[in-house]
Structures are given as C-alpha cells and as structure tokens.
Amino acid sequence: MSNTIIDTNFNFPNQNSVYKGKVREVYALEDDVLVMIATDRLSAFDVVMPKGIPYKGQILNQIATKMMAATEDIVPNWLSATPDPNVAVGAACEPFMVEMVIRGYMSGHAAREYKAGRRMLCGVPMPEGMQENDKFPEPIITPATKAEQGDHDEDISKEDILKRGIVSAEDYEVLEKYTKALFQRGTEIAAERGLILVDTKYEFGKTKDGNIVLIDEIHTPDSSRYFYADGYQERQDRGEAQKQLSKEFVRQWLIANNFQGLEGQTVPHMSDEYIETVSERYIELYENITGETFIKADISNIQERIEKNVLEYLKA
Question: How far from each other are the two terminal CA atoms of the chain, in whole angstroms?
Fold first, then answer.
C-alpha cells in the first residue's frame, strides 16, 4: 500500500504558490497557469483518512477530464491538458465561493432534512408525500457555501447568496443555467451506462478576462451520487435501499466503526486488506461511470513520474 501519493512538494519553473486541499494540491505558476495534482488521499466527513487509496487520484482525475471533454460544447471549463494520469493543467480562475449542488432525487442530505420534517431546502420547496430516493418533479438547485479548510459547507439559499453579495445576480443566472445544462448532460451520459445521476455539485470560477468557467472535478464518485437504473423502480416500490455508485460505502464503513467526524471520535484503523478493497471499488466505479476498462498507471515512483511528465509539458 506504499505506492500511493499522499503529499507533494514540487518546485516547478515559474511557480508562485501552492494550495493543498483535502485531496488535491494546486500549484500556481506565472501567466495564470494552474497545475492541479489529484492525490490518493481519501476524505470523508470532512476528515482526511491517514492512508491513501491506490489509483484513487488517477481515477478521479481521469473521470473529471473525460466528463469535461464530454460537456465542453455546452459549458466552458478551465482545463487545458492532462500531462499525467494524476495531473490536470489549466487557467487560473477566481472561484465563486458557492458550490452549485443540484438534486434530481431526494437522497442523502435532502432525505435527512425531509425525514426531520423540513420541506424547504436552501429556500426551495420539496413536495409532500415523497419517500427517500424518489425523483423530484424537476431537479432542484440547493447551493452550499464553500467552507474554509476544515469546516463543513453550509446550505444557503439563492436569496441569501444575492443578499450577501457572494455572487452577483447576473453571474448567478449564468451559474444556474450552466448547472442545469451540465446536470442534463450528465443524466444522459449516466443513462447510456445504465446509471441514474442522482445528485452532484459543480464549482465555477471567473477567468481574468471575465468568463465564467467550470472548475474542479465533475461527475466523479466523490462529487456525485449514482444509482443503478436496473431495478430502481422495483426497489422503490418495495421500500428497499437503492444500489449506489459513490463513495457512500466508505462513509457507511466509518459509521459502522463509530466514526462520523465528530469531536472526540477517532478514525478507525484501515487495514491493508480494507484499503485494497476500497481501491478495487474505485476501479469498479470508474469502469461503470466511463464504460471503459481502467488502465493502471505505473506507480513504482509516482512522484518522479508526475514531475517528469509535468516538466516535459511545461517545456513544450
């Protein structure tokens, strides 16, 4: 399990700064170029697990880049190149401090709010008489404020976003339009794979010349929830849990081992055997979402591989 990339400390030519998120590390270079490295870190309940998951970074990076290529005709994005399986290079943007969460089905956070008796989520009404995992009459957008590192993101309504000046009314209209278009395309792509895109989140930024573009990951199992379409209605009719395709299986394992990121709780020990099963599950997710066989990159020395590929790209 040692062949994972948990942390990086590169010094690329014309490098200005480094930002380290929960699972990605972003190197800012001159001329507004960003080099984003997807590590093998695993985050759940806003906590980074102590061990990395082999191939996880490659999987998330490759799904995201494939999905950006499949949607660039409807929404512009920040991406320029992928010189390494774990690396994406693109234009620096000023990120909007909201995540555009869109839900086609009443699952996850929405279902928990519904069970608690609430019928409004982020200022959006949810119909009476629904059961968990039912489809909404129309997809709903339920934004979240982007948290400072280590904090939980918080629900926020469109009205509060505009009132607090987090996003201008003009820009928010574009974010809404792009979010709906991306979700529609993502739903169509999922259907071709025998899947249902249940909910997801999109992040956007503004380039130096004022264009709004899609940034970060898109339609990955870390940012999205999928159901298997086959048997969905039968399971709903019987009141059974849906077969999911997301990293929910990790959260459930943590919950079963008494961890939900709460104060005083300790991350349970992850054996090498368990880490391997998580890696295999992520590969299964990749193949189901993309419809392609996953090709493992050389992980004998990931740091050297990444540095070599990025430097060759920058020189070219």
Answer: 34
Distance CA 281, CA 247 (A): 9
Which of 119, 153, 149, 148 lies closest to 136, judged by CA?
A: 119
Q: Give the DSSP H or E segment for 210.
A: none
Helix (H) or strand (E) holding 173: helix 169-192
Q: What pTM did the predictor assign?
A: 0.90
Residues in the chain, how many? 316
For residues 224 and 101, give the distance between their C-alpha atoms in angstroms, rounded to a whole number: 10
CA 297 to chain centre: 21
Rounded to an integer, what is the distance from CA 205 to the centroid of its chain? 15
Count the neighbouring beta carbons within 10 Å of the beta carbon of residue 104: 21
**Token output for 145:** 């404020």
Cβ pair 54, 3 in contact under 8 A: yes
**CA–CA separation, 270 and 259 (whole Å):** 12
CB atoms within 10 A of CB 75: 20
Per-residue pLDDT reduced to its tens digit, 230-263? 999 999 999 999 988 888 888 889 999 999 889 9
